[in-house]
Design goal:
This protein is α+β, with helices and mostly antiparallel strands. About 45% of the residues lie in helices and about 15% in strands.
């Protein structure tokens, strides 16, 4: 990967920095900086979006104001405060960081030292060191890869995001603002989140569009290139159970891995129905959806109205609540996208 010329890199970072100062989001971990606040926010942001993290971060800081307070906490309380953020090993690792720092009475002073902690990889180490300690280390994650692949017009296909990050490490370092590495890294994150999005990047208002080789060639949406994802085929059997004006639905619990709090059609597997009974139910609809790396086919069986009472008694899903929704209330419920669309079809079929 060829670095930008020093003059070009200088202009790039100046344009990026000026833009960041103008538009940066007012996020709680940016209002007041400390190593502790940065470590907490970067752990939370590892696999979770900014909007979700905000209330968790604020609550966390109310509970534990510094490494010493967190180090003295019970693991059970720490896990409870993490509830809903997912990937709980992050909470345990964050507690481990606090306990070691409290015990050693010293915070790490380099990217390499940060990386010695469990749960802190290259990205998090560079983010913490640059944002809270002014250490000149460039972050490289999916957002930064996307920006740099477009900036340099790099049309190579990368095996996966980790190998792309390795390939772009040198270019990321060559554009880094060494005097202001924290702002620079956050500006790159902000550019990836707000402007240089994967689909439909907002090039017209991009502060660094004049440096972008991909835009000059009109290929920005096609970069960076990765092999097509191998999708796993999954089949689900759903039930369409309408009794008069009511339709049977489930509401997913807040703690489910996917589709939290959303309403969907119930799955056959969540009921104790003899196979020879369900085999007689009419297959009335089939829909396809994709979630992450799964290509899901959902087949709908129509449950005879007379069977619905018995069916409901056999429901036993831990992560969902079964309920009947009046057809006049269906528009008020939050359904997953595909189920909203399929509901309209199913209402037509069963009218
Ligand atoms: N994602 C990871 N770290 C972040 C930060 N400091 N600000 C915004 N988004 C982020």
């Amino acid at each position: 990967m060829t670095p930008l010329s020093p003059a070009c890199a200088h202009e790039f970072r100046a344009a990026l920095h000026a833009w960041f100062l103008r538009v940066r989001r007012d996020l709680p971990w940016r209002r007041e900086r400390s190593v502790y606040r940065t470590v907490v926010s970067e752990f939370m942001l590892q696999q979770t979006q900014v909007d979700t993290v905000i209330p968790y971060f604020e609550n966390w800081i109310r509970n534990w104001k510094n490494f010493d307070e967190l180090a003295a906490a019970d693991e059970a309380d720490v896990l409870r405060a993490w509830e809903g953020l997912g990937y709980y090993s992050r909470a345990k690792n964050l507690l481990g960081v606090a306990r070691r720092i409290a015990e050693e009475k010293r915070v790490p002073a380099s990217v390499e030292e940060w990386r010695e902690f469990r749960g802190i990889g290259a990205y998090t180490a560079a983010a913490i060191a640059s944002i809270s300690q002014g250490i000149p280390a460039a972050v490289v994650d999916g957002n930064v890869v996307r920006i740099l692949a477009r900036l340099s017009g790099d049309e190579r296909e990368f095996r996966d995001s980790a190998s792309a990050a390795t390939e772009f490490a040198e270019l990321a370092s060559s554009v880094l603002d060494e005097k202001n590495p924290g702002d620079h890294n956050e500006a790159m994150m902000e550019l990836g989140a707000l402007i240089c999005s994967r689909r439909s990047p907002r090039c017209e208002i991009c502060p660094v569009k004049n440096f972008c080789a991909a835009r000059a060639r009109g290929i920005e949406e096609s970069l960076p290139k990765f092999p097509p994802k191998k999708m796993k085929k999954v089949e689900v059997v759903r039930l369409w159970c309408r009794v008069g004006n009511e339709v049977l639905l489930v509401r997913n619990a807040a703690g489910t891995r996917r589709l939290k709090n959303l309403c969907e059609f119930p799955r056959l597997e969540d009921f104790a129905v003899p196979a020879k009974t369900s085999a007689k139910w009419e297959k009335i609809f089939e829909g396809k959806r994709g979630i992450a790396d799964e290509a899901i086919t959902e087949r709908f069986l129509c449950v005879p109205a007379k069977f619905s009472g018995r069916l409901e008694k056999t429901f036993s899903a831990e992560q969902a609540e079964l309920f009947r929704a009046g057809t006049e209330d269906l528009e008020k419920l939050t359904l997953s996208g595909p189920h909203r669309k399929w509901l309209r079809e199913l209402l037509k079929i069963s009218a």
